Amino acid sequence: MKLPKLFSIHDVELKGSKVLVRVDFNCPIGSNGEILDDSRIRAHVPTIKELLRRDAAVVLISHQGRPGEPDFVTLENHCSILSKCLGMNVKFVPDVIGPTAINEVRNLRAGEVLLLDNLRLISEEIIEAVPEVQARTYLVRKLAPNFNYFVFDAFATAHRSQPSIVGFPIVLPSVIGEVMKRELDALSRIYEVSEGPKVFVLGGAKVQDTIKIVEYLTKNKVADRILTAGLVGIFFHVAKGGSVNKETLKVLESKGLLSLIPRARKLILSGAPIETPYDYRSFKDGGEVVEDSVSRLDGKALDIGSYTISMYSELIKEAKLVVMRGPAGYIEDERFREGTVKLLKAALNSNAYVIIGGGHLAAMVEGNVRENVHVSTGGGALLIFLSGEPLPAIDALAESTKKFFTNLTIK
Ligand code: 3PG
Fold first, then answer.
1. Is the per-residue pLDDT at 275 higher than 80?
2. The whole model's pTM is what?
3. 275 lines ligand 1 (CB under 6 A)
4. Which of 6, 128, 215, 303 could in theory staple to 336 by disulfide, Cβ–Cβ 3.0 to 4.6 A?
């Protein structure tokens, strides 16, 4: 896919302007509401510093989790972490579009930074629609008039067509920040890898998103092998007609995933190159950790087993391109980290061009990479891009560029 030319924060005059910056501070959250990994917050520090250096007033907006999920929390802790990273006080406003938020935004001066609360507290933000519709939401209509520019830096959300992502570019001159720039530069290099095998390792628990990604990968013939793990692996095992114990089936049922089985079956029948784990490591009622084949599994499956790890590692070793997204197991618990750690090692020790995506995996390889490894802040967005499908955020930014920057040339 050819990337459109987009303007960045380096291409526009920012002195004295007020900028609205869409970041992605969506972090893994622990059972006590604590932030387990802050790399997504730290990733945006260069963008914010550059905006401050250029004398702008900076208002940050982000989502965290999804309503109804345990990681759907306010951004107060994110703000404390950001203040520490920037070495200055970032004001947290526990509001998004109410009078408090609007007043604080209006009173903000150049050189100051403010973070509004979790965007998904506003119900409009979880609805997907075309940019023109999103530009008419309350969120966009209340916030946009207070700004000179919209800066999009949330690469990891680029596959969503939500108001904070595609609505603002319709009404405000929009440019990209440092995270977006780094991601797009790295992704445009991927087209240099034309040789296969191209191996995608898809784990984690975002089954619905992964089905869509596998559909795209299959339709556009991008992947030679798709190695599934985590809940995604169990789901595809069941879709292939494999059996699992009642406890595991209940997990799929409680997440509303059983209704997606026919869609996954269709994919498998259409020749999607999906591999599923042969064995899992599980947690039995009495607290014992055991390993067995998927169909004979006892207890809750929380990591892939040794046989799967070694088979998958072999396939990774032969690949020319490896794309990994989502953990293979419940990495928050040391006993169930091994699958993820070993698959990551296999990829990093291979000769392949490696792309690692999603918050969990990115946190595990931080600061520890060789040449030809790109650690992306994106998960779903990264995979949709790699599967050759358009990203709504990029399309909206391209539209904004055409609309507002006709007389500017990109440096
Ligand atoms: C991500 O973690 O992939 C992004 O923050 C997007 O989150 P979402 O899948 O809840 O939209």
1. yes
2. 0.84
3. no
4. 303
